[in-house]
Design brief:
The complex is a heterodimer of chains A (304) and B (282). In chain A, 49% of the residues lie in helices and 16% in strands. Chain A is α/β, with parallel strands linked by helices. Classes of the chains: A alpha/beta (304), B alpha/beta (282). Bound molecules: guanosine-5'-triphosphate (GTP) (2 copies), potassium ion (K) and magnesium ion (MG) (2 copies).
Chain lengths: 304, 282
């Protein structure tokens, strides 16, 4: 992930080699490469624009001390290092503060509602989260609230069977009623976590977005998580901001990062919604879920 | 008259339109450079003409230099059975597209058989079976976890023996970076050829229109591994524009056969370069 971004930063770094002062021209030159790299990584156009403007403002005209005394002795600081640090800090600021926690409910089973576009990985990630809860000693219940996609219920049942976790589904109920009823089922099953797997939908699908609002109103989930495909492009912004506007999501999960997707959407969604990245999907099997860590991502972006 | 001249502001606006449609730096820059050059030579003097020229150029690229007419669908050749293999990354819309395509092919008077070559993902076989029922086509399935190549072999063979016109094989979603899984697809292709010499006659790559620049890598690698013959661009009913296919058409010369515009049987349309370009600038 993010190799191209790293390449861009390296190119930018070379352009600043051998200078002691970061001049506007040199910065502009370097920033052009960074802009291209971020765009190629699918970071949203506006986010790239703001990022570049902020870095430019911070970097131009800085006279860099070439030697800095530290506890470990004298360190040589080059303007390019300094510039990269500015970029690094700015990127970290964009992705933080880190909060990979999920809210728990002390009075009743903790509710986690999964939402997102078609095929983004909701059902699989529901299974992955259930697996995680199991390892924490919790008792999850899976709720098959996708009544539309062919065999969506069956898919969740297969995952439930793999994990030995109960799956609640019922024909003839609309998703909000079904989710409401799942709370009784959880009581009977002595489950303390309820995971609601909803159908994929477009953010502009009015009836289906309304349905999500109804589910939210019916069960008041403690966590609403947007599941987003890491390969998503510029549309990430429209999609994420609309899901957030309608549902006030608590965070998002980026899936399919086991390929070579650069995952620029991580930056865009964080910047646009202000909501934290919770987990990264790293494969199809149910143990391939990782907690998000920004150092990894930022370092990767910068190429070290 | 009254129009502002083509200046940096106009070009910056156009750049934004192109980038936010996922066209990508390389293709967008090339398109804009050509435009800028024509402005410099005074061939294009006002923004309206500039936009028209850009549209024309993009239409030229996605119609493969005019070779692809509006509404050109999958050409079902004389071979029987005519075998179509459908591939793509996870969740792109392969199985759904197969359901829709089966209905379309049947509507053209051909009999269809489906092969459930995704034996891996939970309930993938059931999903295809429901689509098969919906459109009234028979389906060949294997056990979960069984060899996808043998299921596709069976499907192609059964199609040949039963005098079926078109066999469409589903495959499990996979990321193009996973070498063993790409090898598996190559094997599926080889085995289909054993069942029906010369098959598969079409290898359709399904691309998700919400994808950004990664789709280029997908297209390159699936094409290199399998020799893709056409693209289906799904999920165009959303706000995404699918601009990344412009670069793909330009680089690989692959035709976009269909676009997916929803989740129902009827939501598969022949690709229209004109409509695509209009939507891009809408
Ligand atoms: N490689 C990879 N594949 C994944 C990952 N997460 C999910 N998938 C795959 O992506 C495809 C779609 O996943 P689903 O869980 O069915 O997605 P969904 O969002 O529930 O889809 P709909 O219910 O149709 O909207 C499946 O093939 C999954 O196996 C991941 O982290 N990596
Ligand atoms: N809005 C919209 N949704 C679509 C379209 N095509 C497919 N989908 C949805 O996208 C999701 C994934 O579709 P599938 O057909 O299961 O995708 P796939 O490529 O077979 O997925 P895997 O087999 O898991 O790799 C489903 O929810 C489909 O209903 C389309 O054109 N528009
Ligand atoms: K669209
Ligand atoms: Mg699902
Ligand atoms: Mg499928």
């Amino acid at each position: 992930m993010l190799e191209t971004v790293a390449k861009g930063f390296k190119a930018a770094r070379n352009k600043l080699k051998g200078r002691t002062e970061i001049t506007a021209d040199a910065v502009d030159d370097a920033l052009r490469d960074i802009r291209v790299a971020l765009l190629e990584a699918d970071v949203a156009f506006d986010v790239v624009k703001r990022f570049v403007a902020r870095v430019r403002e911070k970097a131009v005209g800085e006279v860099v001390e070439t030697k800095v005394k530290t506890e470990k002795g004298t360190l040589k600081v080059t303007p390019q290092d300094h510039f990269i640090k500015i970029c690094h800090d700015e990127l970290e600021a964009l992705m933080g503060p880190v909060d990979t926690s999920l809210k728990t409910n002390s009075k009743r089973p903790t509710g986690v509602m999964m939402v997102g576009l078609q095929g983004s990985g909701k059902t699989t990630t529901t299974g992955k989260l259930a697996s995680r809860f199991l390892k924490e000693g919790k008792k999850p219940l899976l709720v098959a609230a996708d009544i539309y996609r062919p065999a969506a219920v069956e898919q969740l049942k297969v995952l439930g069977a793999q994990l030995g976790v109960p799956v609640y589904s019922e024909e003839g109920l609309k998703p909000p009623e079904l989710c409401k009823k799942a709370q009784d089922v959880a009581f009977r099953e002595k489950a303390n976590v309820i995971l609601y797997d909803t159908a994929g939908r477009l953010a502009i699908d009015e009836p289906l977005m309304e349905e999500l609002e109804q589910i939210k109103a019916a069960v008041a989930p403690d966590n609403i998580l947007l599941v987003c495909d890491a390969m998503i492009g510029q549309d990430a912004v429209k999609t994420a901001s609309e899901f957030d506007r309608r549902l006030a999501i608590d965070g998002f999960i980026l899936t399919k990062l086991d390929g070579d997707a650069r995952g620029g959407a991580a930056l865009s969604i964080k910047e646009i919604t202000g909501k934290p990245i919770k987990f990264l999907g790293m494969g199809e099997s149910l143990d391939r879920l990782e907690e998000f860590r920004p150092e990894g991502l930022a370092s990767r972006i910068l190429g070290f | 008259g009254g129009e502002r001249p083509v200046d940096d502001g106009v070009l910056a606006d156009l750049e934004e339109v192109l980038f936010t449609a996922d066209i990508g730096v390389k293709t967008a820059t090339r398109l804009l450079e050509t435009a800028r050059e024509r402005v410099r030579k005074k061939e294009l003097s006002d923004p309206a003409k500039l936009k028209a020229a850009l549209r024309e150029e993009i239409a030229r690229i996605v119609s493969l230099d005019g070779r692809l007419d509006a509404g050109e669908e999958l050409a079902i050749g004389a071979q029987r059975p005519f075998v179509v293999m459908v591939v793509g990354v996870n969740g792109a819309g392969k199985t759904t597209t197969i359901g829709k395509l089966a209905a379309k092919v049947q509507a053209r008077g051909h009999s269809v058989l489906l092969g459930a070559g995704d034996t891996f993902r939970a309930a993938a076989g059931e999903q295809l079976e429901i689509w098969a029922e919906r459109v009234g086509a028979p389906v060949v399935r294997g056990k979960e976890g069984s060899d996808p190549a043998s299921v596709c072999f069976e499907a192609a063979k059964k199609g040949a023996e039963g005098g079926v016109d078109v066999v469409i094989c589903d495959t499990a979603g996979r990321l193009h970076t996973k070498a063993p899984l790409m090898e598996e697809l190559k094997k599926v292709k080889r085995v289909i050829d054993k069942a029906v010499p010369g098959a598969p006659h079409e290898v359709l790559l399904v691309l998700d229109a919400t994808n950004g620049q990664n789709a280029i890598a997908q297209a390159r690698q699936f094409h290199e591994a399998l020799g893709v013959t056409g693209i289906v661009l799904t999920k165009l009913d959303g706000t995404a524009k699918g601009g990344v296919v412009i670069g793909i058409c330009d680089e690989l010369g692959l035709p976009v056969r269909y676009v997916g515009v929803g989740e129902k049987v009827a939501d598969l349309r022949p690709f229209s370069p004109r409509e695509f370009v209009e939507a891009l600038f809408a």
